[in-house]
Write a structure and sequence with these properties.
66% of the residues lie in helices and 4% in strands. The protein contains 19 helices and six strands.
Length: 444
């Protein structure tokens, strides 16, 4: 313990000073010798440390997202070198180096808390052994030894004997019950936090070293807390339970409002965002605009949840813009199609309506009547060339078989009989002379 104290002596004094300052504030409210004053001082220390660690938490999120984007490449490497584990590991490390990511970055907040954890442990152990440390003098030491949290002294442990517990003014049963409950809550909160990350915010279908690492942490950390927790003082258990609850709430907020692309959390978020945007007709918050902007910029690379989001906006008459805003669809507004191709919303040219056979025949009859009346007007002209035009017009009007105007019969009778017979035979598919061509049985 002396070795650990010497290693973390540079931070033991600041930690003890912060605890004393918080104790001075809470002591005026709850009393200086109460468990509330000392317990809330430890909780406030945790909150202060975690606020200072928020930049590291943001860096951890970015590193985790970078690992998520590398998962398709990791899967390709696994499939390519599935029979050569050594080459597979080398290619993975090469990919990490090229992309600038680190699979151990998810442990940054835990590693950063370690100095504070050992410093607090050393301070509370000094209280348990009755020795002053840092800025904690004799009077503060006596006050801390009198403090009880739900019947358990601040410096008591699960493994302490009855004589030591009685010297602190408590019973062995109370100490073991309180410490056991706190150890279970500490391990359960750690397990739930890691499981929440694994089931909601990552793609578990891709088996990568990063996924194996996260899965290992999900089971290893709770066991570690349960094993080492029996040797932690009650004050340290309060510290670690508080930081686990903070981590769980912080992660729930991130998963709900900024989920990993392709995860179940993103599907739930885009479903909520669709209802919100279609109800108000616009994106109201900056975070919503950021996510919509990222979805629009992906184009053809959108996943199924993002395509469903764009389609839902289109059905509601809304168009997602490149700056993250959402506008009502107009005739000339730019819309995003399902496959990511940008098209204009201009009106399409309508195809002419298809007519039935009866409509086409009636139209042909009407056209034939108009041409006949026109020929009659020409026949009244004294010009002989007009008479020739009349004959030509009458001969052409006799060619369509569907249209059979009554006025065309006299002109047909003036034509030579042989020509008429030859033309009718030609129309029926027969030869003028020689052997006749047999009809095909397949055509009727």
């Amino acid at each position: 313990m002396d070795t650990i104290a010497s290693l973390f002596s540079f931070i033991t004094t600041p930690v003890s000073w912060v605890i004393v300052q918080f104790h001075a504030v809470y002591g005026k409210i709850f009393g200086p010798d109460t468990g509330w004053a000392w317990g809330l001082s430890i909780v406030s220390l945790v909150i202060l440390i975690r606020i200072c660690l928020i930049p590291l938490f943001v860096k951890q999120i970015k590193a985790t997202r970078a690992m998520q984007t590398l998962q398709p490449e990791m899967k390709k490497i696994q499939e390519r070198y599935k029979n050569d584990k050594q080459r597979q590991s080398e290619e993975m490390m090469k990919l990490y180096k090229e992309s600038g990511t680190n699979p151990l970055s998810s442990c940054l907040p835990i590693l950063a808390q370690s100095p504070f954890f050992f410093a607090l442990y050393h301070v509370l152990n000094g209280i348990a052994t009755g020795s002053t440390i840092g800025v904690i003098n004799e009077s503060l030491l006596a006050s801390a030894r009198k403090a009880h949290i739900v019947g358990a002294p601040l410096a008591a442990k699960f493994t302490d004997g009855s004589s030591k517990v009685e010297a602190l003014g408590a019973s062995l049963t109370d100490v073991r019950v309180v410490t056991a409950v706190m150890i279970v809550l500490m391990s359960a909160s750690q397990f739930y936090t890691q499981r929440q990350l694994m089931t909601k915010n990552v793609d578990t279908t891709v088996k990568t070293p990063f996924m194996q690492q996260q899965k290992m942490l999900m089971y290893v950390f709770p066991v570690m807390f349960a094993v080492f927790g029996i040797n932690f003082p009650v004050g340290v258990l309060v510290y670690w339970l508080t930081t686990n609850v903070w981590t769980m709430g912080q992660q729930m907020y991130v998963i709900r409002n900024n989920p990993t692309p392709g995860s179940k959390a993103q599907a739930a978020y885009l479903e909520r965002l669709t209802k919100h945007v279609t109800h108000h007709g616009k994106t109201r918050r900056r975070s919503e605009k950021t996510i919509v902007k990222a979805i629009v910029a992906k184009g053809r690379d959108r996943n199924e949840f993002e395509r469903s989001f764009i389609n839902a906006l289109t059905k509601a008459g809304l168009v997602a813009q490149a700056d993250g805003t959402v506008m009502k669809g107009e005739a000339q507004a730019v819309a995003q199609t399902e496959d990511g191709v940008t098209t204009t919303g201009a009106a399409r040219r309508q195809q002419p309506k298809r007519q039935t056979k009866a409509q086409r025949q009636s139209g042909a009859v009407k056209a034939g009547g108009d041409s006949t009346s026109a020929s009659s007007d020409v026949s009244d002209s004294p010009d002989p060339s007009a008479s020739e035009g009349k004959t030509t017009s009458l001969e052409k009007s006799d060619e369509p078989q569907d249209a059979k105007p009554q006025d065309a019969k006299p002109a047909t009778q003036q034509a030579p009989k042989s020509g008429s017979n030859g033309r009718s035979r030609a129309q029926s598919g027969q030869r003028k002379g020689g052997p006749q061509r047999p009809k095909s049985p397949s055509k009727k």
